[in-house]
Amino acid sequence: MSSSTTDAIYVFSDSDLDTDDLFILDSPDPQPHSQDFSGGVKRKLASTNDSQRDTALRQRHSGGKLAFPDGIVRLTRMTGGKANVSEAVTLTDIIQPNLVRKALLSTFVLDIDWLLAHFNSSTRVVVVKSYNPKVERRGVYQSHNGRVTLVNPEFTDKQAYPIMHSKIMLLFYDDYVRFVVSSANLFDVDWTMLQNIVFMQDLPYTPSTVHASTEFGTTLAESLRDLSVPEAVVEQLRHIDFSCVKAHIVTSVPSSPGRSKYHSTSYGQARLSKIVQRINDSANVDAKEKYSATLYCYGSSMGRLTNAYLRSFYASALGTSLASVQGKGGLAPGDIEKRIKVGFHTSAQTASNAHGPTPCECIKFSSQYYADRTFPKYALYKIEPMVPSTLVHAKVILSRFNPKEGQPQTRGWMYLGSHNFTPGAWGHLKSYGSGIYVNNYEYGIILPDVQFESVFGRDSVTWNGLKVPLPFKLTWQKYESGDQPHLS
């Protein structure tokens, strides 16, 4: 579902923008164009409790104490869900409407009126969104009397399936910026009927100071430019202190000869491999440890998987080449296939979920792909959601390996974001080292140095000294003969 408002106008010069001193926007195309963005249901979300909570947060932040200075992972709080309150958040919790001044967001599915109900009427909002290039044009638009700026990023002419699937937020407050990466789209279903996952970190923001550049800040700026975010917004990153960030950004951008000009060798699987190699080097992970890794890969959509794709992805997730993994001292193809588990909802799970048929539409797997004789059915595993009778829309990859041979898998890393476990999202490796072909825009982060342990017989995950809530239990079970994946 995509919402709209009929006052949207194409912006073709800075002088045509009704904006303020933070988001002064430019445009990539000189020709005016109109666009329709009507629909959606407005409702008042703020309450007395929200106001009291925001006042307390304002007092805390005015004293120089950030709510999430080191970064934290949370799950979305579904309607009627019984998830631990301390581990679940609503969109209102994240945005803090009485505190936020300006916001940049991106989404695949957009209900603009539902989204704006989470902000005060004076807050300026920039939204990067997906669109159909056969109907709409690339460019920058304004709607809602200049309050909203909508960005249609670049798609390639030969792209069979134009998809802008990234889900990030930069929320600007008086003296800090909240950086958010999630698996949730900006419409009601993803925040109330489906289990999604969120990473957020609060970073000091001083508009009068230019902070020293960091690798994370540079990568963030490049990733925003890849999404066609106006340069005036990107420029604000110079005033953010990224020195405490430990997470790594991994993005995907549609491939074409003239595209991917900012860090073209670092998208999808190629970027994943580079990050993991760096993690392994910093943690002194030796070859035996590395080759012991088991991957747990979950997404709400599944693509055309093959044995070859699983092997290449496993190599990327080890931070090395497929030839290296299969070389002397490595793993045989059959061993690799045993080390990668692909989680997906069964048809029985979707049929019995507590929220009815609506969330089932967001769980995607083509019956044609499943029927293909080359599809690796042996790799399919059933997941058990942490909240019973719900569906998981989160996109998560966990890598677990042994610190020493024969010991439990207690070390590893974690991915979360918008990448489903599909070749369209992570890309097809043309040949290792020569780049990849990617179809989608995607956005995620990797948390290094994740710790796994068993607490009272249940797996627990921690990062940076904090518990990481997972949307599912880690006791995955192989599909049995009577199990069928949910097919769309």
TrEMBL record:
SUPFAM superfamilies: Phospholipase D/nuclease. Residues 28-60 are annotated as: Disordered. Substrate binds at K167, K395. It is found in: Nucleus. GO terms for biological process: DNA repair. Pfam families: Tyr-DNA_phospho. GO terms for molecular function: 3'-tyrosyl-DNA phosphodiesterase activity; double-stranded DNA binding; exonuclease activity; single-stranded DNA binding. GO terms for cellular component: nucleus. The keyword Phosphoprotein does not apply. It comes from the Eukaryota. Coiled coil: none annotated. Keywords: DNA damage, DNA repair, Exonuclease, Hydrolase, Nuclease, Nucleus. InterPro entries: Tdp1. The active site is at H165 (nucleophile), H393 (proton donor/acceptor). Belongs to the tyrosyl-DNA phosphodiesterase family. PANTHER family: TYROSYL-DNA PHOSPHODIESTERASE 1 (PTHR12415). This is Phospholipase D/nuclease.
